[in-house]
Amino acid sequence: MRIPIAVLALGLLSLSDAASYGCQNSESNDEIRDLFLNFHNNARRRVAKGEEPNKQGKLNPAKNMQKLSWNCEMEKKAQDQIKTCSGGLGAFGSWGANTMTMGGSGLSSNPRPFIERVLKMWWGKVQQVGLGPDNKYPGGALYTFGNVSKCETVT
């Protein structure tokens, strides 16, 4: 059985930082929301402090890295994408989004390890490809990392 997980970084993150997010999506829960949000904010904090690993050494510190917060409307759009399994990002307009489709037994009962693996993969791209001291992205190889690490992103 194949169950897709569309992990849409930044497309899920925006306004709400309470313990209960208040989202009406029964396909997810606050523990999963915390996983996404905390993973990204912890990694963004490491970037801001110049502690995030690069291919060689560490990334330059960010000067204005914003903290992310959750957006239930974006979560709904992501869940709609999961239900249709379209693989397209058209519903997200100008929002940056990353996707990953995964399948296998155990995914629906405990998606946490799969989500963690995907998040680490997106953030780990910079360690594989590397970002130069000028902080310019060398083409599409860092697309997923760029979406989750852009300093002005708050949603």
TrEMBL record:
Domain annotation SCP: ranges: 31-150
Secretion signal span: 1-18
Alphabetically ordered keywords of this record: Signal
Alphabetical list of SMART domains matching this protein: SCP
Any one Pfam family match given in the protein's UniProt record, by short name: CAP
Gene3D superfamilies registered for this protein in UniProt: CAP
Source organism superkingdom: Eukaryota
Protein name: SCP domain-containing protein
Provenance organism: Ancylostoma ceylanicum
UniProt gene name: Acey_s0004.g2029
